[in-house]
Amino acid sequence: MSTPSSGPGTATQPPGRGPVRSGSPRTSRTARNHAPITLTGMLVKVVLLGLVAGIAVWAAFPLIEAELWVGLAILLATTAGLFYLYLTPRHIPVKYLLPGTLFLVAFQIIPVLYTASTAFTNFGDGHRGSKDDAIVAIQSGSVTQVPGSVQYPLTVATKGDPATGTLVFLVTDPQTNTVSVGDTEGLRPLDAGSVTVAPGGKVTAADGYQILNFGEASTRSKDITDLVVPTSGGALRSSGLSRAYEGKAVRAYDAGCDCIRDSETGKTWTADGKVGSFVAADGETLAQGWQVNVGLRNFADVLTDPAISGPFFSTLIWNFAFALGSTGFTFLLGMGIALALHSPRMRGTNFYRVLLILPYAMPSFAMLLVWRDMFNTDFGLINNLFGLGVDWFGETWSARLAVLLVQLWLGYPYMFLVTTGALQAIPRELTEATSVDGASPFQSFRAVTMPLLLVAISPLLIASFAYNFNNFNAIQFVTEGGPFPADNPTAGATDLLITYTYRLAFGAQGAEYGLAAAVSIFIFAIVATVSAISFSRTRKQEEVYS
Predict the structure, then answer these.
(1) Buried b or exposed e, range 346-356, using 16+ CB within 10 angstroms
(2) What integer pLDDT is reported at residue 436 of this predicted model?
(3) Percentage of the chain lying above the pLDDT 70 cut
(4) Among 9, 189, 405, 477, which residue's Cβ finds the most Cβ atoms within 10 Å?
């Protein structure tokens, strides 16, 4: 049988290969790497890049207005990079990795960096803005009515919803009959064609503003009274709901001494840049200050200030006990139930499994509120069912026991599910072999089942510990951190560090975001350290039983 000769122009082919396609190898590789783009794909790309361009333009104007040139440069560079990347056929892997990376930066890295930067400032109530903002607020807040103060017809309005919108004053100048709108930024004239003015000068309608009726204004009377509109001659304040007056500031800033002077009493408050406040010679500090960098002061306060360090360390000890107890008790109960249902002699296991995971299927926040009522001293189910008279949330240890019991009920179904899956992955031959060697069921469990079980679910136990260490809902919805000692309403007996931090940031004594951010960094460091040590030991255990 003759074979074809391989002369010039004849393509030879190694055995086992498919037919050779025409064209150079380079052309073939290009064709394979760059498949033709469909019309739908092109439309999606155009729409997404159009959104990117729109967002960039929208974000550019505030940056330009605030003269944040570095941020504008980053915005322009990022936008140009995205257009280059997705309009060229190169860098295929980067096209898929970049969206996830950007979301990671936007929703993880930036918030963490912002929290860390806040921890080195005094940011909080009274220290939110700049020094100039503080001076304006101090001067405006000291405005009082003096003889001869100009009176204006007043209409109270909002931008948006009457109940929650930003309040503004609509006032008519009694001399020129011009209408102006005033807020915390000052007075601005309005176009005469955009307002309707009744005889007497009261504004009855204004484009873009919602006029408040008497009932709506009454519900926001405190906000109306507190609103101060800076003017060139002093500030504008309300006198009732229909009149406003332009008063004079009793306290004024003196640039020569960098201080605030009170014209009535003569008292002086000098600016202290270290704390961001105006402080008098007798130590009195004006409530309105400004944001400054305080270095490590917040961290030092957490560790050394008795008013903060005492509650912090006592809360930290209970926090560890709560996280370990919640994780350990739920694991033991879940594992015990899983072992019982894993027995081949057990019947109706599917039915029992459905019943046991019911707590896991219910909304946790709703169940926490139900449990709080169940522990009520007077009408709660727990006391009535067992004939008890325990004030569960009134004593330290009973409140702590209550939250641990609630966590046990809510958490054991999860541990039951993961333990059941891990048990099913352990070959029965291993336990049967130990039985043949004469080991008891307990010895078999301790020598074979438990080590292999821990290898499988140790990462989940670590994750559960980290979650329970910051389990805000479990405390806030059940005990709200209480009971509280009579001398300290900030840190309660069942508070975790996360609820203690929340109370620092949003407590009735005033928000202290800088201090709360410092505590948050401590929490992060603690959880990260414990997790790293636990994962290290888990890897060693895996090496032993692998």
Answers:
(1) eeeeeeebeeb
(2) 80
(3) 92
(4) 477
Q: Give the H or E element holding residue 128.
A: none
Lowest-pLDDT range, 17-31, 213-227, 297-311, 419-433?
17-31
Cβ(401)–Cβ(483) below 8 Å: no
Q: Among residues 409, 408, 418, 422, which one has the least CA distance to residue 328?
A: 408
Cis peptide before 483 (omega within 30 of 0): yes
Q: Judge contact between 294 and 121, C-beta under 8 A.
A: yes
Per the CB < 8 A criterion, the answer to whether 527 and 471 are in contact is no
DSSP SS3 for 254:
strand
0.85 exceeded by pTM: no
- For position 509, what pLDDT does the model report? 67
Rounded Cα distance, 481 and 311, in Å:
12
Give residue 37's pLDDT band: very low, low, confident or very high (50, 70, 90). Answer: low
Q: 286 with 270: CB under 8 angstroms?
A: no
Mean pLDDT, residues 502-518 taken together: 85
Mean pLDDT, all residues of the chain: 87
Closest CA to 516 of 289, 312, 286: 312
| Other CB atoms within 10 A of residue 247 CB | 22
Q: Which of 391, 534, 520, 401 is nearest to 463 (CA)?
A: 534
Answer for the pair 513, 124: CB distance below 8 angstroms, yes or no.
yes
Q: Count Cα atoms within 13 angstroms, Cβ side, for 261.
A: 8
Does pLDDT of 191 surpass 50? Answer: yes
**For 369, phi and psi rounded to 5 degrees?**
-65, -35
List own/partner pairs for 538-546 with CB under 8 A and 24 or more apart: 538/455, 538/458, 538/459, 538/462, 541/451, 541/454, 541/455, 541/458, 542/455, 544/451, 545/451, 545/452, 545/455
314 pLDDT higher than 80: yes
Length of the chain, please?
Answer: 546
497-520: buried (b, 16+ CB within 10 Å) or exposed (e) per residue?
Answer: bbbbbbbbbeeeeebbbbbbbbbb
The alpha carbon of 391 is separated from its chain's Cα centroid by a whole number of angstroms, namely 34
User: How does DSSP classify residue 194?
Assistant: G
